Amino acid sequence: MTNTLLITGGASGIGAETARRAVALGYRIAVNYRSRDGQAKALVAEIEAKGGKAVALPGDMAQEADIVRLFTETERALGPITHLVNSAGIDPVRCRVDEYDTATLERLFAINVVGLMLCCREATRRMSTRHGGKGGAIVNVSSMAATLGGRKAASAYAATKGAVDAFTKGFAREVAAEGIRVNSIRPGAVTTEMTQDRLSDTAVRDAIAASIPIQRIGEAHEIADAILWLLSDQASFITGAMLDASGGGYVI
Ligand SMILES: NC(=O)c1ccc[n+]([C@@H]2O[C@H](COP(=O)([O-])OP(=O)(O)OC[C@H]3O[C@@H](n4cnc5c(N)ncnc54)[C@H](OP(=O)(O)O)[C@@H]3O)[C@@H](O)[C@H]2O)c1
């Protein structure tokens, strides 16, 4: 059977790197994107040039109708979804708790938490043996922020990732006997478009690197490889786990 992998927020960063590396493993890949039409299509062309099969599918992972449509369109294009990576996420302008506004918090939770949970619902309706599916594997992209409450002024972002981890543990138990494995990955600081502004300040970059036991910022492919391992049969007895891909965590 050919495996079909859907990656939300797959046009850039960790999601895109996961797609690139999944080609060699034989997955058919659906690359979801919100605003990055050009990047998503270029990635699909790159995958096809390597002999892979991929589609770029738009959809806002904060909108339930878009999520439902994304799953339907993925299956129409590539066949039954066997693997899901929830990488779509935002880390908006950082500020202290006393500066937060409701709209910012609602958007943050709508994408990082509620959208991710709805994607897991759609996956379960297709993968679960309870619904006639053949099982599957899911990786939710969390963050090391979930463990320590985040770096300075990132408590709201950290709260969303804490929710992702708690949800992943409970969800994994709910569907463990139905053929679905679910794990979360907790990247530490990684060079992507999400972090490029912050990391372009050399002093900030050096301070972050110094706070990580391995003494450097991570690269997207180092997270992608761990995600693909969690999705693979090599991780067949692992579910409800949080894998830290973080160079040893961080000291703040
Ligand atoms: N980089 C790090 O240091 C780090 C560390 C820990 C965890 N993470 C997590 O890793 C995941 C991937 O982030 P990244 O570092 O690879 O950064 P990235 O390149 O910014 O990737 C995030 C992707 O999510 C997409 N996205 C955001 N909102 C969306 C929505 N509503 N619907 C669909 N797609 C949406 C973005 O596209 P648009 O811009 O078009 O919305 C973007 O392509 C995120 O969940 C992030 O929280 C990153």
Can you tag this structure with a few keywords?
7-stranded parallel beta sheet, alpha/beta, binds NADP nicotinamide-adenine-dinucleotide phosphate, 9 strands, two-stranded parallel sheet, Rossmann fold, 17% strand, 252 residues
Question: How would you summarize this macromolecular structure in one to three sentences?
Answer:
The chain has 252 residues and is α/β, with parallel strands linked by helices. Helix content is 46%, strand content 17%.
Architecture blueprint of SSEs:
Blueprint: E1 4-8, H1 13-22, E2 28-33, H2 37-49, E3 53-58, H3 64-78, E4 83-86, H4 102-127, E5 136-141, H5 145-148, H6 155-175, E6 180-187, E7 190-191, H7 196-199, H8 202-211, E8 218-219, H9 220-231, E9 242-245
Parallel strand pairs: 1-2, 1-4, 2-3, 4-5, 5-6, 6-9, 7-8
Helix pairs in contact: 1-9, 3-4, 4-6
